[in-house]
Amino acid sequence: MKVIGVTGGIGSGKTTVSNILSSLGAKVIEADKISRDIMRKGHRVFDEIVDYFGEDILDEKGELVRRKIADIAFNSEEKLKALNDITHKYISIEIKNEIKKCNNEDTVVVDAAIPLENGFIDVSDEIWFVTADRDIRIDRVMKRNNLTYSKVMDIIKIQPDDDYYISISDIIIYNNGDYKELEEKVKKVYKKA
Q: pTM of this prediction?
């Protein structure tokens, strides 16, 4: 089994690359989905987040409001670090557990915006960095997520910079074009992988 880590900042197209790889037969593990799952009521992470951030981050049903948590964390390095300290260790554990379940797969893709040292870099045989010009990324996210320019910039600022992604990556995929162009690039790289 080969594990490909696919990473890149918001709006780069990393999830689109992972979806293309899925259509080519790879099993995809999404760190964002794991993050959402472990933040549900009943999971230890939920309790730790509420203990740290308080009940103001809950909706009327007692569920976490991810947008509220993001607004708080993106405006404070200390709170962002605390959120990451709470969630990343569990995300790493779950990624490793999911990989173990995939022992009959030829290729497993771990899709993660933040390339964790433990649970991404250490489990990947190859790391693919997906990137695009900043203006293109910002435009994509503003349209897709209905966010303001400043909100998108807040997210970009807390993610690793391109130099870091490049330093850990084996493959760099530039995604400034359309879907068809990206699909051709991914197929070409995947055949060599």
A: 0.92
